[in-house]
Write a structure and sequence with these properties.
27% of the residues lie in helices and 21% in strands. The strands form 2 sheets. Strands 2-1-3-10-4 form a 5-stranded mixed sheet, sandwiched between helices. The protein folds into 2 domains: 96 residues, 3-Layer(aba) Sandwich (D-Maltodextrin-Binding Protein, domain 2), CATH 3.40.190.10; 90 residues, D-Maltodextrin-Binding Protein, domain 2, CATH 3.40.190. With 243 residues, it is an alpha/beta fold.
């Protein structure tokens, strides 16, 4: 049986898509397992799921793919969706906007778009940029606006652009993708890190209290009832001098 703790001979490769920041989990890993190297490897949104399936990375922090086959996805958090516009754009005057506010705009939808609209607001541009980065350049050129997760708006920030939350837009989930099936020790340890488990609460931790059998639970309940009955039948102190 594999050990529940990583060994010094092992290493873990963690892929991550643009906008996702794995630093806090990497720091936690390094504190807990200083003898186990952790490599952070950037992967494109289009290639992240396949990188896990083929073993190019052990796990990946990504936005859930349309095809999750052969993967197990562990939800982590939901990102706010924002609209990216030039700083002098009309939408920049508000602190937040709605999808209806975007309806009059030409909306750029890159090929790596991750916002799961039932129907995109506004008029979709005929040309689809290759990436969010390419689309951002077109927004700066005044071609249209862009709707993306907030982390991608920050990643591609420019001084001549700004962004505003779209309050009724779908949020953008981020998940940890691991190979489906039983997990190797290193992967199981990293799952514990991203889920916020303490070292003592990690699954498979040696010394954890064993589960009681059904018979043991029944005997414990019977003993508790018997003890309660004895307490109820114990006579209280008598008062002397009373007949």
């Amino acid at each position: 049986m594999a050990s529940s703790s990583p060994t010094s001979a092992a290493a873990l490769v963690v892929g991550y898509v643009p906008g996702v920041t794995p630093g806090k989990w990497a720091r936690t890993w390094t504190r807990r397992h200083p003898d186990v190297p952790l490599e952070l490897r950037p992967v494109t949104a289009a290639d992240a799921a396949e990188a896990v399936r083929t073993g190019l990375v052990h796990v990946a922090l990504l936005r859930p793919p349309a095809d999750p086959s052969a993967l197990a996805l562990i939800p982590l958090y939901e990102e706010t969706t924002v609209v990216v516009v030039p700083t002098d754009h009309l939408l920049s005057a508000a602190d937040a906007v709605t999808a209806a506010d975007v309806d009059g705009e030409l909306v750029l939808v890159p090929l790596d778009d991750v916002v799961a609209w039932d129907a995109h607001p506004g008029t979709n541009a005929e040309h689809r940029p290759e990436t969010v980065g390419d689309a951002t350049e077109l927004v700066a050129a005044g071609v249209g606006v862009l709707v993306v997760p907030q982390s991608l708006a920050r990643l591609h920030h420019r001084k001549d652009l700004t962004y505003r939350p779209v309050v009724d837009a779908p949020t953008c989930p981020v998940a940890l993708a691991v190979p489906a099936g039983e997990q190797p020790a290193l992967v199981a340890e990293f799952i514990g890190v991203v889920r916020g488990r303490t070292p003592g609460s990690s699954r498979g931790q040696a010394g954890a209290a064993p589960k009681r059998t059904a018979r043991e639970k029944t005997l414990a309940k019977q003993a508790a009832r018997a003890a309660a009955g004895k307490v109820a039948r114990t006579p209280g102190p008598t008062k002397r001098g009373l007949r």
